[in-house]
Amino acid sequence: MDFPLARQYFYREIHQPEEQIDLAKAALYIAQEEYAELDPAEYLNALDTMAAEVGDRLPEERYPLRIVQAMNQYLYEDLGFTGNTSDYYNPDNSFLNRVIDRRTGIPITLSLVYLEIARRLEFPMVGIGMPGHFLMRPDVEEIGIFVDAFNGGEVMFPQDCEQRLSQIYGQSVTLQPEFLKPIAPKGFLVRMLTNLKIIYLQGSDAKRCLAAIERILLIFPDSAVNLRDRGLLYYQSRRWTQARQDLESYLEIAPDAADVSVIREILQRMG
Question: Structure pTM?
Fold first, then answer.
């Protein structure tokens, strides 16, 4: 593969059986493309250390809420982790190494830190990819509680999740069952990369936007919207052959998309 070394490591990690994907490693390989000197082992060791320190504080009776309380005390009160409300769209909020260094991030990356510590404590939790926000819950049947890593590890019930969504969207939102479904590792990584894609797109950073899209397509090669967006970036940079290939694939996968006529017109311009 003609990829940077970090991309090759990322490719290997995501092409394992999904249950074997190490989210922290994959996230660090994403960050390594931006921070070439990053040593993933250093940050994996940092997560090990944090988990060991929380483990020393856990009571003998390891009830889920007690574990959550111990983790919240350690991460938010002792270490000072916090949601980055003042600079939310800074790309560093999406890089695991920088989240650990700066102790601030966005919901999904703070959740990743939390999930990785919980995993090391043999307290399985799952990510919940709600629209517009990211939560977690203990992986316990019918437990009915959720944890908001962005807001100090706040413990929430479904009605609280509905209120949080209504706050985010500025209007009444009815909670749908699919909003609270666990997200699989590949979906988790795509959501992280999509955040970066949007940030770079809004910042007119075509090179980094393209790199984020390329990694999404390594995970989901038939993602129509990302094939289209990569094709458009290729078109803008006059890479006609690659643009044509992606845009034609987009039309095959999404023949009824609203922008089909626009894409056909672009293809005609390329001749």
Answer: 0.94
| Domain definitions of the chain by residue range | 39-180, 222-270
3-state secondary structure the chain: CCCCHHHHHHHHHHCCCHHHCCHHHHHHHHHHCCCCCCCHHHHHHHHHHHHHHHHCCCCCCCCHHHHHHHHHHHHHHHCCCEECCCCCCCHHHHCHHHHHHHCEECHHHHHHHHHHHHHHCCCCEEEECCCCCCEEEECCCCCCCEEEHHHCCEEECHHHHHHHHHHHHCCCCCCCHHHHCECCHHHHHHHHHHHHHHHHHHCCCHHHHHHHHHHHHHHCCCCHHHHHHHHHHHHHCCCHHHHHHHHHHHHHHCCCCCCHHHHHHHHHHHC
Task: Kindly give the confidence (pLDDT) of every residue in the chain, 271 residues in length, as a single tens digit, with 9 standing for 90 and above.
Answer: 567 899 999 999 999 999 999 999 999 999 999 999 999 999 999 999 999 999 999 988 888 899 999 999 999 999 999 999 999 999 999 999 999 999 999 999 999 999 999 999 999 999 999 999 999 999 987 788 999 999 999 999 999 999 999 999 999 989 998 999 999 999 999 999 999 999 999 999 999 999 999 999 999 999 999 999 999 999 999 999 999 999 999 999 999 999 999 999 999 998 7
